[in-house]
């Protein structure tokens, strides 16, 4: 039986990576949309060739990898170029995610994506789990993790899908406002519940 797909998302500093890691430790097959986005532009892949054809050799670093800073600068200035790039990459990223999820041996598999809702990737999942945390805690965690300023974190929070929008798509919400031991027990509880589901739905 084909595994069903759980979409896992959460704002910056919500603890979604810790949650994903614990599902992995429990043996759940997991793919990260951010990793898939990096795989599609690796040297030798068609997407990288197309990017260089369109924007020139300055899109490549000396080692043949994509020069992300140069690409960002290029599409940042020009809305139509950004749309061209999204039209090129989104289907490829979707394909990459699908191929990887299809290899799952576990009863369900997880698509981890910070932009699950914004990118429409939630359509690839039968069920959505949102890791949520009080905003003050999100800021505090991210400042500690990235040694960045609270103002920068607040700017990122504003740019990400607002909390309401994310929670509106959630079938399950895990409020991560306690310690790691508690978080692990919550993940285990969800995991045991998910194992009872057929196609991600309660029968």
From TrEMBL:
<comment type="similarity">
    <text>Belongs to the CoaE family.</text>
</comment>
<dbReference type="GO" id="GO:0015937">
    <property type="term" value="P:coenzyme A biosynthetic process"/>
</dbReference>
<feature type="binding site">
    <location>
        <begin position="13"/>
        <end position="18"/>
    </location>
    <ligand>
        <name>ATP</name>
    </ligand>
</feature>
<comment type="pathway">
    <text>Cofactor biosynthesis; coenzyme A biosynthesis; CoA from (R)-pantothenate: step 5/5.</text>
</comment>
<keyword id="KW-0547">Nucleotide-binding</keyword>
<comment type="function">
    <text>Catalyzes the phosphorylation of the 3'-hydroxyl group of dephosphocoenzyme A to form coenzyme A.</text>
</comment>
<keyword id="KW-0067">ATP-binding</keyword>
<protein>
    <recommendedName>
        <fullName>Dephospho-CoA kinase</fullName>
        <ecNumber>2.7.1.24</ecNumber>
    </recommendedName>
</protein>
<keyword id="KW-0173">Coenzyme A biosynthesis</keyword>
<keyword id="KW-0418">Kinase</keyword>
<dbReference type="InterPro" id="IPR027417">
    <property type="entry name" value="P-loop_NTPase"/>
</dbReference>
<dbReference type="Pfam" id="PF01121">
    <property type="entry name" value="CoaE"/>
</dbReference>
<keyword id="KW-0808">Transferase</keyword>
<dbReference type="GO" id="GO:0005524">
    <property type="term" value="F:ATP binding"/>
</dbReference>
<dbReference type="GO" id="GO:0004140">
    <property type="term" value="F:dephospho-CoA kinase activity"/>
</dbReference>
<keyword id="KW-0963">Cytoplasm</keyword>
<dbReference type="GO" id="GO:0005737">
    <property type="term" value="C:cytoplasm"/>
</dbReference>
<dbReference type="InterPro" id="IPR001977">
    <property type="entry name" value="Depp_CoAkinase"/>
</dbReference>
